Amino acid sequence: MNFEALLNKSGVPILAQGNSLGAVEIAGIAADSRSVKVGDLFVAIPGTKIDGTAFIADAVAKGAVAIVGERPVAGTTVPWVQVAHVRQTLGLLGAAFWDVAIDNFELIGITGTNGKTTVAHLFRKLYELRYGPEGVWMFGTIDYMLGGVRAAAAHTTPESLDIFRLLGGATVRPKALVMEVSSHSLSLDRIGGLSFDCAVFTNLTQDHLDFHGTMEQYYLAKKRLFTDYAKKGARRIVNIDDAWGRRLVGETGPEGILTYGKAADADIRIVNFSCTWEGTSVELLDAGELVTIASPLRGAFNVYNMSAFYAGARSLSIDAPSIAAACAGVAIVPGRMEVVPLNAPFAVVVDYAHTPDALVNILQAVRPMTVGRIICVFGCGGDRDRTKRPIMGRAVADCADEAIVTSDNPRYEKPEAIIAEILAGMPLDIPHRIIIDRKEAIYKALSLGKAGDCIVIAGKGHETYQEVAGVRHPFDDREIAITLWNGMINHA
Question: Less Cβ around it within 10 Å: N or C end of the chain?
Answer without folding.
Answer: C
